[in-house]
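quick one, 212 residues, struct below
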Amino acid sequence: MIDWSDPSPVFAVPAGAVDVYQSIQRLEPGAWVAAHTHEGPESGVVIAGAIARHEASVTREFAIGAAFCTPGGAVHATGNPGSHIAQAITLHVVRAGSAFSTPCPCETAPPAQPGSSNPARSIVRGTTIPVARIRARHAHAELRGPVALEPQAALDPQVVLPIVLTVLHGRLAEGGSTLEAPAFTVVTSVQTFAPQGGPAEVLLTRFEDGSI
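---
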């Protein structure tokens, strides 16, 4: 049984076709990503260390396991206030064809400091989400043996996108392929994942109808 987190805050989805991106943010101690915006909402969860988020002239810190959400168009900056490496997984829903992010100077945000990695990877392109508001849930787990996953939409009608499985550490075998951290896959059919060479740490993410 998957132990899903409490839902993140509900946020609005851009109308029409959207693209969904994932990013694994890795920040050295003291590093800050420059202030920027996204066309649509961003939902994330901290998987290592602590993350600071500056938005609307306020800076909040999120410890490991905490989820955060930023609405589309909001100017924000992300940093690492701690003395250890910080990491977060973020998912972004933007209008199809729009830029993943746009720099947006903000006088109140901490200045950008080097030491961050934030590669964005496309998960879904040109899809239409059938609801206007959604929220995210995450499950952080260590796999020590094979586990079968199936699209949550087949079990739960409030789920609006397939599960996204991200390998954080280790390797997973699925069918004839191998996923090695950092890697992700979208679960669209029943699939069995088995760790190779030791336990594998994974993060599962799903999006739900926020109007329910």
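The first strand starts at residue 11 and ends at 12.
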